[in-house]
Specification:
This protein is an alpha+beta fold and about 450 residues long. Helix content is about 50%, strand content about 10%. Helix 6 (about 125-150) packs antiparallel against helix 7 (about 155-175), helix 7 (about 155-175) runs antiparallel to helix 11 and helix 11 (about 255-285) packs parallel to helix 17. The chain binds protoporphyrin IX containing FE. Protoporphyrin IX containing FE (HEM) binds near residues 117 and 399.
């Protein structure tokens, strides 16, 4: 992001001059590129090295700007819970997502954010959630049946990506979306890919140019559909938003629905693909846990052609814990940016207004003093008792405070529904000696797509 003044409906401020930050310990790396390459090559290793040298607060320079990393549960609580309304998400996430997902919920701040979050939350109440579960359940059951019919070796990550996309088409847009479905999902995939592209300008031939084109198509589709959905929409998430109102009873504007829908689909897509892939990878590498979860699913006593209910999901305690552990090891949002709107202090250091701030779930989730033997997959870290004795911001895959993930229950629902069908039908394993290599930033994914072997359960 450039060093000019940034304006929002609520604030105008200027990023601090570099020399006002030099009292903060840190190493800004090479001229211009700073630490960008080192951080991209090994995000976890890099941040652990910096923390070892400088402690839980340090200055760095990445992606063209000096920023301050605040690490550990206390930092997460300060920044995410943000009781003093010190941190802007608009001006933290804006430079990454602002061009393609402007005014998505996560990119709004404070009072405006609260109003929109309240309006959107109707789409996540238990009535609508039940209808999404029905769509997810049908879609997952059908895909798992296909996998069961063609057992053997498969690349799991692309298969999961496709499944999540297909599920979003029905639960987010409605089963009757029709022949446009492929075009819309392609436009959407281009937008998501562009949001994490290295080249940030829409130059011809770049991901960003495709993303901007995709956004135009999506905007046109949603705009044309809104009056139709208002007149005779179904129970899908899009139709829910078309009917959602602000506190004064006014419907959300067309532009608001377009912005919220685009953002919601993006927020759900890569995070679910990443977390379900790391969940399955962990079960493949830990057969004793895979069997334990399969026993739990079998114990539900539902025939394989019966639908999954909310009560079934509630009863899947080990699955819940194992999914949480997968989210600990590979948080789909490994770091979260904010910008300080006022001066503040942390660990005795004064940090000026305008500073770019980063908190880091990936680091916190591997602090050995909180998570002994942090690389070991151990869902028992999430028993009620174990959680009671832990800082409430030690595990933050869904963030916390005002911006805490609105789709958290949707994510658990999809993960457990998937686990139910997958484990009831298939056994998953890795080739002996194969250790998948993960790219951890911007969203964790296995570099080679994760090769697994599937075998039908007798
Ligand atoms: C395992 C899956 C998911 C993970 C790990 C995840 C993680 C997160 C995190 C960390 C944030 C907060 C970021 C910040 O404070 O800077 C967030 C926000 C959000 N997520 Fe998720 N997410 C997941 C799935 C979903 C799904 C399925 C949906 C929608 C159906 C969704 C919708 C949202 C929305 C709307 C926000 C913005 C909330 C706000 O600003 O008030 N997420 N998510």
């Amino acid at each position: 992001m450039s060093m000019q003044s940034v304006a929002s409906p609520a604030f105008t401020f200027t990023p601090p001059k570099r020399n006002t930050l030099t009292h903060i310990p840190g190493d800004e790396g090479w001229p211009i590129i700073g630490n960008t390459l080192a951080a991209l090559a090994d995000p976890k290793g890099h941040i652990e090295k910096q923390a070892e040298r400088f402690g839980l607060l340090y200055r760095t320079h990445m992606f063209g700007e000096t920023s301050i990393s605040l690490l550990g549960p206390e930092a997460n609580e300060l920044v995410l819970f943000d009781q003093a309304k010190l941190f802007s998400s608009t001006h933290g996430w804006g430079s990454i997502l602002g061009l393609l997902f402007p005014r998505g919920l996560m990119l709004l701040d404070f009072d405006e954010h609260r109003l929109h979050r309240r309006a959107l939350s109707v789409a996540f109440k238990s009535g609508p959630m039940k209808s999404y579960l029905a769509e997810l359940d049908t879609g997952i059951a059908a895909r798992v049946a296909q996998w069961r019919a063609q057992p053997g070796s498969m690349l799991f990550y692309p298969a999961m990506k496709q499944l999540t996309l297909d599920l979003a088409a029905t639960s987010f847009l409605g089963a009757g979306i029709g022949p446009e479905v492929d075009e819309i999902t392609r436009a959407f995939v281009d937008m998501v890919a562009a949001s994490v592209a290295v080249i940030r300008k829409p130059l011809p031939g770049t991901k960003m140019a495709r993303g901007v084109r995709g956004r135009k198509r999506i905007v046109a589709y949603f705009s044309e559909q809104i009056p139709i959905r208002r007149a005779k929409g179904g129970e899908d998430l899009f139709s829910q938003l078309c009917r959602a109102t602000h506190e004064d009873g006014a419907l959300l504007s067309t532009q608001d629905i377009v912005d919220h829908m685009s953002f919601l689909m993006m927020a759900a897509h890569d995070t679910l693909t990443s977390s379900l892939t790391s969940f399955v990878a962990a079960l493949a590498a830990n057969p004793q846990w895979q069997n334990r979860l399969r026993d739990e699913v079998t114990g539900l006593g539902i025939a394989s052609d019966e639908p999954t209910t909310f009560d079934n999901l509630e009863a899947m305690h080990f699955t819940d814990m194992a999914f949480k552990e997968a989210l600990r090891q590979k948080p789909p949002v490994p770091s979260m940016p904010r910008r300080a709107v006022r001066d503040f202090t942390f660990k005795g250091f004064a940090i000026p207004a305008g500073s770019m701030i980063g908190v880091n779930p990936l680091f916190t989730h591997h602090m050995p003093e909180i998570w002994p033997d942090p690389d070991r997959f151990d869902p028992l870290r999430f028993t009620e008792e174990a959680q009671r004795n832990r800082h409430r911001f030690a595990w933050v895959p869904f963030g916390g405070g005002a911006h805490m993930c609105l789709g958290l229950h949707f994510a658990y629902m999809q993960a457990k529904c998937f686990a139910r069908h997958f484990l009831q039908n298939l056994e998953v394993s890795l080739e002996p000696g194969y250790t998948p290599d993960w790219q951890m930033w911007p969203i964790p994914k296995p570099r080679d797509g994760l090769r697994v072997t599937l075998k039908p359960v007798a």
